Amino acid sequence: MLKGLDPILNADVLYALRAMGHGDDLIIADTNFPSDSVARETVLGEVLRIDRPAAEVVRAVLSVYPIDTFVEDAAARMEVVGEPDTVLPVMQEVQAEVDAVEGPKMLGIERFAFYDRAKQAYAVIQTGERRFYGCFALRKGVVPPDEEG
Question: InterPro entries per the record (predicted)?
Fold first, then answer.
């Protein structure tokens, strides 16, 4: 246990988040997402796990992970098949966590396009989220230097 860190952030997740650079994508996926097979194609090459609901995982991740402010698709969600404008409760909960760190409105990405983006990501965290369409992409931003005074 470390002070100041959300205890659900395990060592493997912290290692990956620290290793990522500006512009790298992180996928936070529900239990139904093919996380293991997709993760094998990512930079990290293996799936990470946090067995908690998606919004809790996003909150913990965003406590240490800056969202990119240079691109429009820095935060994204997998669209409901056949209903791209539908925003499910799990999506609303995650958007609230993104809003809490002054992040952007999440863009919807068609299911297979989301899979393609996920395969190009740095890492995939599979959550314990059992609700459908609890899959999100967050692009890493930068941590600015301390202000000199």
Answer: RbsD-like_sf, RbsD/FucU_mutarotase, RbsD_FucU
**pLDDT tens digit sequence for 2-14:** 789 999 999 999 9
- Identify the domain containing residue 32 by its residue range: 11-139
Query: 15, 22, 51, 99: which is the annotated catalytic residue?
Result: 22
Q: Is residue 19 part of a domain?
A: yes
Q: For residue 85, indicate whether it is catalytic.
A: no
Q: Tokens 């989301």 — which residue? A: 114
68 tagged catalytic? yes
In a domain, 106, yes or no: yes
C-alpha 121/C-alpha 105 separation (Å) is: 20
| From 30, 65, 68, 122, the catalytic residue | 68
